[in-house]
Amino acid sequence: MKRYGRCRTRRLRGALLALTTAGGLLLTGCGASDTGGNSKASDRSGNRSGSSAPLPAPDRGEGEQAENGDSREVAPDHLSTFALDVDTASYGYARRALAEGRLPAPSTVRPEEFVNSFRQDYERPGGDGFTVTVDGARTGEEDWSLVRVGLATRPAEPSGERPPAALTFVIDVSGSMAEPGRLDLAQQSLGVMTDRLRDDDSVAIVTFSNEAETVLPMTRLGGNRDEVHEAIDSLEPTASTNLGAGVETGYATAVESLREGATNRVVLVSDALANTGDTDADTILERIADARREHGITLFGVGVGSDYGDALMERLADKGDGHTVYVSNPDDAREVFCEQLPRNIELTARDAKAQVAFDPETVAEFRLIGYDNRRVADEDFRDDRVDGGEVGPGHTVTALYAVRAKPGAEGHLATATVRWLDPGTRAPHEESGVLETDALGHSVRTAGRGLQIAALAAYFADDLRSSAPSMPGTPHLDELHEWAQDLAARTEGEDVRQLAEAIETAGRLK
Q1: pLDDT tens per residue, range 179-197
Q2: What parts of the chain have a pLDDT lower than 50?
Q3: Which residues pair with 203 in a beta bridge?
Q4: Count of CB atoms within 10 A of residue 140's CB?
Q5: Are 380 and 81 a contacting pair, CB within 8 Å?
């Protein structure tokens, strides 16, 4: 085991998992079985050396599941289950608001998106799927620790080795997009991206204001880049925002020009201030449900603008099998359109979910930080009809837990398992990792860079969205700023320096 309790990982592959659903077999890995098998904590005592398979999670008792977000005694319910989420828009939008001299609205602050805005150095798998890293460190509050569950996919392949892409850009050209840093920023970035995509990639462009219009049908880039540039340059803002019509037309265009063997994706660029037509995310999603389910077309949401419909964009992406980012300046836009999107066009996992089983013999209570609208019922972990998250190559996903250990407890603390479907075959796979109590000997302030920055980001989000901190050992903003500054100086990390600046600004505004 590496320093700070980095876990071991184990694989449970397709055929065994299929048998689990069909026959109710208990898998070695955390989580309740689909058929209600019962494996008590005492049955697991012989596995705590870590030399055998991951530890099975006992089932919940009837009626004993706690409400989402609450601290809870783990004896009746020691499971925590959530859909994976690689969104980062909340942190980007918060930085934009702070730079403009205002605090972000608490409803737009999602701690998991703050945490996942920072890349982590988790070990990567050799092929598709995930590695699982579980570690943790003590907080300043007695018996309380932060436990980090880290999931990582393989690095992105060089551009020439990935499948071709068929990208349908759905671009908001409503009047609000005339503000500098909205449509103009998108046009500049799309122009550069067009030159970086491969000749065998294809692009279509749909615009929407009062109505939606396909201004460029799906066009192969090889020999046609000038035509694509002309379509991008011709975009002008006008009228109101019928986002529902834009999304529906975008998906219809993507389905009509579906390319077999390619990654088919809709990229929505908008301030998401819908004011015409369908403005409800569920209604919009229902209209494109067939395209999502039958053809596997995913949604990538790019938010822009100082006024931004955060809730609508986030719900569209979460329920539309995709994720969101937010761009506020040319550097952000270039990173998203010219680096992230071309590099991470393909998917490595569909409907990915994680489940963490805390050992009732060592854990008194726990709480998942964030993921409030990504919670999944524990019994649905291995129900592959239940929606999870879509993850591409090169991604890391981090979840933080506040965990109070029982005084003097020793041994196994938690087992974390991720389950996902192969994007092509839809075969299920799992990977697990474990954490022992002796891995929590260090203070979070002396932990490795990755755990420290995850803690900093989560503490900052906790402060922004609540006047009463809910995380154990929450530092005052002044102390948090000093901590971030020190970490930035020691690691020479530009991302940590920007976090320190945002914390300092928030402290002044408060």
Answers
A1: 998 999 999 999 999 999 9
A2: 1-76
A3: 167, 219
A4: 12
A5: yes
